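This section describes the prediction task in plain terms. A model, or a person checking by hand, is given the sequence of a single protein chain and must write out its three-dimensional structure as a string of tokens. No templates, partner chains or ligands are provided. The sample shown here is typical of the held-out split.
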Amino acid sequence: MISKMPPALLLSLSALFWGGNFVVGRWAHADIPPLNLTFWRWLAAGLILLPFVARAMWAHRVLIRKNFILLLVLAVTGMVMFHSFTYIALGTTTAINASVVLASMPIVIPVVSVVMGDERLSTRQAIGIVISVLGVVIIVSRGQWQVLMNFGFTPGDLWVLASVLAWSIYSVLLRRLPKDPGHALPPMVLLGSTIWIAIVVLFPFYLWEYQTVGGFVLNISSILVLAYVALFASIAAFVCWNAAVPQVGANKAGLFIHLIPLFASIFSTVFLGETLQTYHFIGIAPILVGIYLTTTAKLPLQIKET
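The expected answer:
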């Protein structure tokens, strides 16, 4: 059902949910330690999803074992590293700034694709990326060149860049999964498998943080935070992303990350009291043009198939 939806819609929904994740993470950073938040979001998501995917995971257990190493790397890069690094970053940078730094991902994904020997970048895609980057520059500079020239990276911004690299590897590796009907893992089985692998990997890091930093108080605020990151930023966003990337490729999908700063800005205005400025609307225009050029380009040449 999900796989039959337009890939552009699926990728836009992922960006919407992750845009909200930046705002929620920033809102909760003083109350919930980052590894606590990452661990409990995936544990909650895994428990919610388990009744719906347990039977399918058991039915596909042979394929899960066969692809376990790849699933492990996907879980570590896309769920453990990406989200842990993001929540660590939000302790020292703003939600909007973090989401804008994340928008560098469409530049990183093609580089990772080339390094890993998966895709080549077409001219149309390159043009689309350049135009979209222009929109990101407008947003990050607030429409003022002086701001851009004086822009300095905080430790949080560098953590976001590390998360960008992790997510880029995750997106490229998604295309390494078997695609033929007899050997392909359904999107929900893929999600369920990687979530539980991520939970196991995260557990010792969570215990370390709990012993050194502490945990968090379970109240209405923390419950709402966990509900959002588990249901929307975890389950819904990953289902949409995992279903769309194999259809359009990592390079095309990565450009939709440019929508995250827009959504994060909107959510920040509503929930954090920040103001949406004219430059946000000016910046989104080239972003959308870039997305159109990239998604309407021919599929890039596949160098490696597994």
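For orientation: Confidence is low (pLDDT under 50) at residues 299-306.
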